[in-house]
Amino acid sequence: MISSFKLFHHDQPVEVTSNDTKVALPFVDYITSSCPSLSATYTPTPYLFNGHLQTIYSSFYKYQSPNVNYERELVTMNDGAQVALDWTVGEKQLGDDSKTPVLVVLHGLTGGSHESYIQGVLEKVIQAPHYYRGVVMHSRGCGFTEITTPQTINGASTSDLRQTLVHIRNKLAPDTPMVGIGFSLGSNILVKYLGEEKENSLLQGAISVGNPYDTLACVNYLDATLFRRKVYSGTMANNLKKIFIRHMHMMKKHPEIVPEEVLSAATIRDYDNACTKKVFGYSTPNNYYRDGSSSRFIEHVRVPLVCINALDDPVSSPLGIPWDEIKVNPYVLLTTTDYGGHLAWFESLLSPSRWIDLRLAEITVALFKVKRNRVYGGPPQIALVSSSSSFPSIDHELSKSLKLVWGYLD
């Protein structure tokens, strides 16, 4: 079992210029030339030979980098809620950090700055030779943050991210680069924000990892078999209920919440029906999922965006990938691997580690170096050029890859 990145993109990718070389290149060519590890093949750990095993192993993999340490900041939102930001701290980050490029990280459904998939990337970008800075934004109630309003996680809302980015931007020098990276539900929120903001994004580039894109399609996929309902949807519902229990005293203040109904939820749809739709005013869970799907916004993204998905991901199903919407947007590059599971991509035999970490770090560095010829809040000054790269069509590659991995998804 060997896999390599397959690239899907617009026929005329947007042209970008590196601050290092001052040479303008089509976005796809710039990323591939700046990130040599992208050409490497991925060989999964032999005993983690499908997406289920990769994903399950990931849930038990608790790597904590000794080089990633945090300092917490609490930020108050407009409605009185608070969001926790965990800033990386280190020897090279003491003193005035206003000119140090910042990587803004969004975690998965109920995750936080402790997650191994976050620590693996941060340890590579905050150390030599880069010494960049990272900040992990926690959704309401996550990361052991107390909630001050009867609201927890909302995968459809970008308001907290928008306010948080303004807060971070105000702490930095005007020309300091900010790049975003999101994982799973966090990547969905990130891409939705980028599509909503278009040219006005405060991020100069972003990376989306394991994005479900179409959350309704993905939830329907999880509901389709008993195995997926029990193993994946059930686990996510239990994680959501843990956060609900932790903040029960506040959640009970919401007039429509019935704690017994929430705690009896067996799937993520059950939980959203008992809690999320009521707290955020949706008539049905399906309308919540439709509202939150970043697939509706990705064609409007106007900063360089790299999306990474494994085609055997049993949580963020490839059924949700908006292939056509990605192909019509010259700012977006989608890279896929046949294997890797959900936020997993483990390799090696005795001590498996994430193959994807180095690739994410290289892409992050490349995006930091993109010259953004704009004043924040104004339109970008970038042109479209023909790509010198040649890749197979989406339809052909998708068909071939899904035939290869589809058997592992059920």
User: Strand order across the biggest sheet?
Assistant: 1-11-10-9-8-6-7-5-4
General shape: globular
Strand content: 15-25%
CATH class wording of the largest domain: Alpha Beta
What is the number of beta strands? 13
Detail the poorly predicted runs: 375-410
CATH architecture of the largest domain: 3-Layer(aba) Sandwich
Question: How would you summarize what this structure contains?
Answer:
Helices cover 35% and strands 15% of the residues. It has 2 domains: 6-214 and 297-408, Alpha/Beta hydrolase fold, catalytic domain (Rossmann fold, 3-Layer(aba) Sandwich), CATH 3.40.50; 215-292, no CATH class.
Main attributes?
410 residues; alpha/beta; Rossmann fold; 2 domains; nine-stranded mixed sheet; 13 strands; 35% helix; 15% strand; disordered C terminus
